[in-house]
Specification:
Blueprint: H1 2-6, H2 15-28, H3 33-46, H4 52-55, H5 60-67, H6 76-96, H7 99-104, E1 112-113, H8 127-139, H9 146-155, E2 159-160
Parallel strand pairs: 1-2
Length: 177
């Protein structure tokens, strides 16, 4: 509930937090978001607070210790993807000045506010997440399919999919955030 009320759909521009959320969304593939949220602090500890500069230096020994860490999802491809994504993330920062500039360009640097009446109307992908997924893959990111990208967009506020009756929807007069 706290995640929904205080984080989900709130625009994030901090590069490190955007990188963290992209990695966590990738870890969630095939699992529930609740599972990953419960392990979020463990992920932060295991992956050096998602500091990409540290992650790119991981040794085989460090990767083996992550595979043995019961506090995270112990999937070799998902763990390796964090290292791959850290390298690509740093490359994107150099090329675009920041990861935030790169990722927010997919929505013309402003959140998309949807006006769904029910949760059933909320999509799992859209044309932007399709385009984002293709670009991220082309640039070298892993675990960034269209569904993961759309979920990431929701998580970091690039798209606000709170239903119109939710107090978190921008049109709500009950917004207490």
């Amino acid at each position: 509930m706290a995640y929904h009320d205080k984080e989900w759909g709130v625009p994030v521009y901090d590069d490190r937090l955007l990188f963290e959320m992209l990695c966590l969304e990738g870890a969630q593939a095939g699992l529930s978001w609740w599972t990953i949220l419960q392990k979020r602090e463990n992920y932060r500890d295991a992956f050096d607070q998602f500091e990409a500069e540290k992650i790119v230096m991981y040794t085989d020994e460090k990767l083996q210790s992550l595979l043995e860490d019961k506090g995270i999802v112990r999937n070799r491809m998902k763990i390796q993807s964090v290292v791959t994504n850290a390298k690509t993330f740093l490359k994107i920062q150099r090329e675009y000045g920041s990861f935030s500039s790169y990722i927010w360009s997919f929505v013309d640097n402003k959140p998309i506010i949807n006006n769904w009446e029910t949760e059933k109307e909320v999509p799992t992908t859209n044309e932007i997440s399709d385009r984002m997924s293709k670009k991220l893959k082309k640039d070298g990111f892993k675990f960034v399919g269209s569904t993961i990208c759309y979920s990431f967009m929701q998580a970091v506020g690039m798209v606000n999919d709170h239903t119109i009756e939710c107090f978190c929807h921008p049109a709500s007069h009950k917004d207490v955030r």
